[in-house]
Design goal:
Shape: globular
Number of helices: 9
Strand content: 5-15%
Oligomer: single chain
Helix content: 25-40%
Length: 221
Amino acid sequence: MKYIEKRSQPYDLNNWIRNKPNLCYDNITKKRKKFIRKKLLEDQGYICCYCQKRITGIRKDNKIDTEIEHIKPQEFCSDIETVSYDNILVSCNGNQLKDNQFLVEQDRHCNNFRQSKALNINLLNNNCENKIYYDLNGGIYAVDNNQDIEDAIINLNLRILNTTRKAYINGFFTEEILATLDYNDLIKYEEYFSNKYEEDDKQMYREYAGIMMNILNQFRL
């Protein structure tokens, strides 16, 4: 999970809200959802709000690799809350079972796992990342064993995710690098992972950027 600094609600969406007679998320057209998805991706630097894998919003094999996610579940929202930009994020598709006949139910994650469950960690609060920590094996844990946070991250502590995270982490922090890591190295890594970079006219975060920053902060302690 990563703190998300959202921009103000896009003018196009604002204008639509003001002029829409039957206001609710279900009445948003595919074209407008595509626009909203693009704005959310830009805010998030093209990484999933939960697992932080790379997402693009591009169709592949007639499927999109993203899901628009409501912070406050839709079934508990007023109509205006279902379309409020401050109440939506973008997630990866979380291993949808319909896309993989060999996938087991327990391997669902991110939005696909959460569904209408309450989200006990506010990703729009810049303190949210202080509530969790990652280890070098790719595991994610709640600080001080906080049960609410444990409930929020349970679907992110899966073998299929931990293995990928571990491989990514170990690709940077080999035993040799860790043995000689100093303050100047930390600064260089922090600059690398904390800033967006441009690729294909998009401003992107590095994949798993928040995870790497979380680990770097632990090295500072």
